[in-house]
Amino acid sequence: MVDTNVGGIDRTGRAVLAVVLTVVAVATLREGNRTTGLLAGIGALAFGFNATTCFCGLNAALGIDTTEE
Question: pTM for this one?
Answer without folding.
Answer: 0.87
